[in-house]
Design goal:
By secondary structure, the chain is an alpha/beta fold. The protein is built from 15 helices and 24 strands. It has a 7-stranded mixed β-sheet, sandwiched between helices. α2 packs antiparallel against α4 and α2 crosses α6. Keywords: Oxidoreductase. This is Succinate-semialdehyde dehydrogenase (NADP(+)). One of its GO terms (molecular function) is succinate-semialdehyde dehydrogenase (NAD+) activity.
């Protein structure tokens, strides 16, 4: 099944600055490859500092007028964007699968998920109300007004190229901000396609600008935005080291930041859990996008009384997973994004085995044949995992389930919290008292209780500790793009 894009207008292949599609100022390009084959199939501009600066110039100029556009009018434009995304769902899904590798059903599912954020923030644009404050004396009126922060720089990751664009750009536009954006170098085409649809929806020139850059050029683009005082906010999803660098570099201009960073999510199965539900929840949470999500369970703790039963049930499900390219409708696990990703997964598995873990199933690369690169890794279950192993300390970002056995609730909570990260956590139990006890004790920004699929446009998404700060989605996500102006009017009596 070829992943052919029918609406070729979705493939502009250029930067979008000040309402114009253009090449990089020096004409440089870099290639985009299909992770299923390793073959290049498109190219996009390899932007420089000059391109990044032009994008800020355009966004800064446009901000003066965009912030004054009535909220209802901004909402209508954003809702038209949502309608166009849904009208092009099939093509966008194929494009995601082609450049990112996830199965086509997941690619289309991501488009629908992305659209849900666009629709949500289109509606929230009209709800950004302020407050009337009770005055302490007569003859005075006091108000708290919400205003857009200004130019926003969005830097997005490769694992959800549509959803991350939507989660960042839609609330920025809804708040009245203008945007400069750099998508991940592995998956720039989906982002460009979404910006093309935003243009068609009526987003005015300069309000939304996007520049693409290779891994070598990315820092030059980001440095311009970090140093420019006109950029008032950075929103970033990616690794914790890069997030900390952005926070340090933003200090000189005191930018507002939203940082959704690394995770090391625990998944706890208590002895009173519904095991079938727990297995299903783990399958949903762990193997989505081949394990390449920031909220994937990275450490699985199963109570000793149900450990063997749980592993047996899980093994049956994992061994039934079909691994293959997105072009095969039967595929449930696609290729990893690149060779570096596969090497990291394999290193984690080898390290665990060397330190005493047991491979229940999987544990090896899969050779696709036909001369294609080995970007596939077999869905894997490890048992006997200890805290000292790399797979328990680092984010694996692949289809590996490392299982540890526990016997005490307090001890497993200690183990779950024994990490610098705090993005998501999951646990399964039917004891209502334990549910609230464990929920309160877990040090994460997101908790899934008897549920493996936790993300929703109406819910706040984000972490604590080294997983960052700020929230995406929900009304809290809109507030991230606004500041409060206090107004006090006197002499009214």
């Amino acid at each position: 099944m070829p992943l052919t894009i029918l609406n070729t207008d979705l493939l502009p292949g250029r930067n979008f600055i000040a309402g114009t599609w253009m090449e990089a100022e020096d004409g440089a390009v870099f290639a985009v490859s299909d992770p299923a084959t390793g073959k290049d199939f498109a190219s996009v501009p390899d932007s420089s500092a000059g391109d990044a600066r032009r994008a800020v110039d355009a966004a800064d100029t446009a901000f003066a007028s965009w912030r004054k556009v009535p909220a209802r009018q901004r909402a209508l434009i954003i809702k038209r964007w949502n309608d166009l995304i849904l009208a092009n769902l099939d093509d966008l899904g194929r494009l995601i699968s082609r450049e990112q590798g996830k199965p086509l059903a997941e690619g289309k599912g991501e488009v629908a998920y992305a659209a849900s954020y666009v629709e949500w923030f289109g509606e929230e644009a009209t709800r950004a109300d302020g407050d009337i404050i009770a005055a302490p004396v007569t003859g005075r009126r006091m108000f708290a007004l919400r205003e857009p922060v200004g130019v926003v720089a969005a830097i997005t990751p490769w694992n959800f190229p549509a959803a991350m664009i939507a989660r960042k750009i839609a609330p920025a536009l809804a708040a009245g901000c203008t945007v400069v954006c750099k998508p991940a170098e592995d998956t720039p085409l989906t982002s460009l396609a979404l910006v093309r649809l935003a243009e068609q929806a009526g987003v005015p020139p300069g309000v939304l600008n996007i520049v693409t850059a290779s891994r070598q050029q990315a820092a030059h683009v980001a440095d311009v935005w970090l140093d420019d005082p006109r950029v008032r906010k950075i929103t970033f999803t990616g690794s914790t080291p890069v997030g900390k660098l952005l926070a340090r570099r933003s200090a000189d201009t005191l930018k507002k930041l939203s940082l959704e960073l690394g995770g090391n999510a625990p998944f706890i199965v208590f002895e009173d859990a519904d095991l079938e539900a727990a297995v299903e929840g783990l399958m949903v949470a762990k193997f989505r996008n081949g394990g390449q999500t920031c909220v994937c369970p990275n450490r699985v703790y199963v109570h000793q009384d149900v450990h063997d039963d749980f592993v047996s049930r899980l093994t049956t499900r994992v061994q039934a997973l079909v691994v293959g390219p997105a072009s095969d409708p039967a595929s449930q696990i696609g290729p990893m994004i690149n060779t570096r990703a596969v090497e990291k997964i394999d290193r984690h598995v080898r390290d665990a085995v060397e330190k005493g873990a047991h491979i229940v199933t999987g544990g090896h690369r899969l050779e696709p044949g036909s001369g294609a690169p080995a970007h596939y890794y077999a869905p894997t279950i490890l048992t006997g995992v200890q805290a000292s192993m790399a797979c328990a300390c680092e984010e694996t970002f692949g289809p590996v389930v490392p299982i540890s056995c526990f016997g005490d609730e307090a001890d497993v909570i200690r183990q779950a919290n024994d990490t610098p990260f705090g993005l998501a956590a999951y646990f399964y139990s039917r004891d209502v008292r334990r549910i609230w006890r464990v929920t309160d004790a877990l040090e994460t920004g997101i908790v899934g209780v008897n549920e493996g699929a936790v993300a929703a446009e109406s819910a706040p998404f984000g972490g604590v500790k080294d997983s960052g700060y700020g929230r995406e989605g929900s009304r809290h996500g809109l507030e991230e793009y606004m500041h409060i102006k206090y107004v006090c009017q006197g002499q009214l009596d």
